[in-house]
Structures are given as C-alpha cells and as structure tokens.
Design goal:
Pfam families: ApbA, ApbA_C. This protein is α/β, with parallel strands linked by helices and about 300 residues long. It is about 45% helix and about 20% strand. It folds into two domains: about 170 residues, 3-Layer(aba) Sandwich (Rossmann fold), CATH 3.40.50; about 120 residues, N-(1-d-carboxylethyl)-l-norvaline Dehydrogenase, domain 2 (Orthogonal Bundle), CATH 1.10.1040.10. Bound molecules: NADPH dihydro-nicotinamide-adenine-dinucleotide phosphate and ketopantoate. Ketopantoate binds next to helix 6.
Length: about 300
C-alpha cells in the first residue's frame, strides 16, 4: 500500500516507521526531523530495534496515496484536513486522541474517513529517532460503526506491518473508551509530571480512575454503553502497557507546548454540562491545564 502519515511527530513516526517495513510510506512532518529522515533514515528504538527509509517531506500538499494516516494534535486537524484535501486518497484514518477529529477531517476530504485509536507509547527522542515506550494496539473502523472494505484493507495493511490491529464495528464506543483512558492518564500525568506507570498505584491513581468514571457516565448520557469499571480497567490496562511512557500531554507540558485538553477533558466537561451532570475531576484537570497554558504557551486558545 502507498501510505501518507500526516504529522510525523512521536506517534506518527512510530506508526510510519512500523508501516514502512511493509509499505511505501511518506512521512509529513517538520524539520529537523524530516531532514534527518531524508538524510539517514528513521531509527525505531525502545521496544523495537530497526531502521527504515520512508520518504519524508515538510510539504503535505498535493500528495496521493491509498491511505492517509492523520497523527497531528487535535487542534491541528482542521489545517491537516485542508492540506490533505489538495491531494488524492482512497481513505483517511485518524489515530489521534480526543473527540471530533474524524468529523473535522470529513468536512474537508472527499474520501471515507475511518476512526482509530492507538495505545502504543511513542516519544520522538531526536531528529531521525523515535522510541516505542510501550506496545499497545491500533483499533480502527468506520467512524459511525459497522463495517467497510476500506477499513478491512487498512486493518490488513497495519497487521502485515506487525502492528497489533483490531478492525472494529463499534468505533463510537471505542472512541469513548479511549477518551476515558486519555481523560484519566494524560492530564493527570502532565500535571503530576509522572510517567504512565505511576498511575498503577500511588496518590494519582484515584484521580485518573475518577476522571475515567466521570467520562463513562457522560458516554452513557450520549447513549454509548461504557461501564464505570470498564473505563477504569481500560486506564489500568493502558497505564500498565505504557508504564514507561511520558504521555503525549506530559510531553507537551515538558516542551511548553499547547495541550489537547480541549479535545479530551474539556470535551467531557462540555458534554456533561449539556446533560446537567457535574464532572468535578475533569473540570479541575481542565482548569489547571488551562491555567498552565495561559501562563506558559503563547497562543493556547484560537
Ligand atoms: N505520543 C504518544 O505516545 C501517543 C499519541 N497519541 C495521539 O497522537 C496524536 C499525535 O501525538 P504526538 O505524536 O505525541 O504529537 P507530536 O506533537 O509529537 O506530533 C505531531 C507532529 O505533527 C506535526 N505537524 C502538525 N501540523 C503539521 C503540518 N501541517 N505539516 C507537517 N507537520 C505537522 C507537528 O509539528 P509542530 O508541533 O511543529 O506543529 C508535530 O511534529 C495526538 O492526538 C496524541 O494524543 C495517541 C497515542 C499515543
Ligand atoms: C496511550 C497513551 C496513554 C500513551 O501514553 C496515549 O494515548 C497518549 O500518551 O496520548
């Protein structure tokens, strides 16, 4: 398959590197990472140890491929969709965290947009080198649920590249479960400045569990069957599998970058408000991250 990975930071470089073992991959990212990949290839370390030579570019306009995999941050989705719309793809797949990415992509793109979740842990260590800090899985499928040939084809492409992959017919529920995982893990690790494994025991464990439980209740308000225990178990499962990972939001805080709080905890708060439900843990996590962004990041809210 010809695959474009749009947003070759931590996760995009890991997924793109794994896919490049079997497929013709083009990474769209930023210099100096793109320049290093063009010069010397991409090294994938940590839980893997191999090198590949995908194409890499900083210009995502006018590309064509069987599949576009989107791995930019949620707040960059709209711009990514507009850039991808200048090219031609049979399908697009979001592997991003947060809610609403697929709808934003579908507003720009003519091709089917698949939903996806990833629980691999990834950190871009230096230009040309990404570390896999935890093996997880990719779950993908039609964004509204059900089955589709393009989802099966994407699932096969990921599977043959050695990525643990499930093609699912219940993506709306899977997205809410992943939202519960990220509502629990990302903000808590970013604020406490701990790796994911610190949520398995210790004082921050209850914070993550409560944020996940609140998310499950809001999911049920939306007609999605996600139990409190299922959400908490999902947090524990992912925290264990990615114990050594610096979550993507903690990576943002360390780099003084805008976070995805709006698409994660703040999304839970907004949906809860519509149902007259209070979600104090998600609200507190949101407000603390917003306060940090206001004092640190140049333009956190557009
Ligand atoms: N890291 C992880 O372990 C995991 C991350 N995720 C999710 O995956 C998504 C990506 O996260 P992560 O990889 O950590 O984020 P990163 O910030 O590391 O990667 C995104 C990259 O895309 C680049 N980018 C954005 N817009 C463009 C553009 N128009 N052209 C070229 N490059 C662009 C960004 O550059 P710049 O910053 O300069 O704009 C950045 O390098 C998020 O939704 C995250 O929540 C999910 C599971 C695990
Ligand atoms: C899977 C997990 C929790 C890995 O850290 C993640 O999604 C993230 O960091 O954004």
């Amino acid at each position: 398959m010809d695959i474009v990975v749009f947003g070759a930071g931590s996760l995009g470089s890991l997924v793109g590197g794994l896919l490049a073992r079997e497929h013709a991959v083009t990474l769209v990212g930023r210099d100096p990472h793109v320049a290093a990949v063009r010069e010397s290839g991409l090294r994938v370390g940590g839980r893997f140890d191999f090198a590949v030579r995908p194409d890499a570019t900083t210009d995502g306009t006018g590309l064509a491929a069987d599949l576009a995999v989107v791995t930019v941050k949620a707040f960059d989705t709209e711009a990514a969709g507009e850039t991808l719309a200048t090219g031609a793809f049979d399908a697009a797949l979001s592997l991003q965290n947060g809610m609403g990415n697929e709808e934003v992509l579908a507003d720009s793109l003519d091709c089917p947009v698949l939903a996806g979740t990833a629980t691999y842990g990834a950190v871009l260590r230096e230009p040309g080198e990404v570390e896999c800090t935890g093996r997880g899985e990719v779950v993908l499928g039609p964004r509204g649920g059900g089955t589709a040939d393009v989802a099966d084809a994407a699932g096969r492409a990921f599977g043959t590249a050695g990525i643990e992959t499930t093609v699912a017919d219940d993506m709306p529920r899977r997205l809410w479960e992943k939202l519960a995982v990220n509502a629990g893990i990302n903000a808590t690790t970013a604020l406490a400045r701990v790796e994911n494994g610190a949520l398995l025991d210790g004082p921050a464990r209850d914070v993550a569990a409560d944020a996940a439980r609140e998310t499950a209740r809001v999911a049920r308000d939306q007609g999605v069957e996600l139990g409190d225990d299922e959400a908490v178990n999902a947090v524990e499962r992912v925290a264990e599998a990615t114990a050594a990972n610096t979550s993507s939001m903690y990576q943002d805080v360390l780099a003084d970058r805008r976070t995805e709080v709006e698409a994660i905890n703040e999304y839970v708060v907004a949906r809860a408000r519509e149902a007259d439900r209070t979600v104090p843990v998600n609200r507190t996590l949101t407000n603390l991250l917003r306060a940090w962004e206001n004092g640190t990041v140049e333009h956190p809210q557009e």
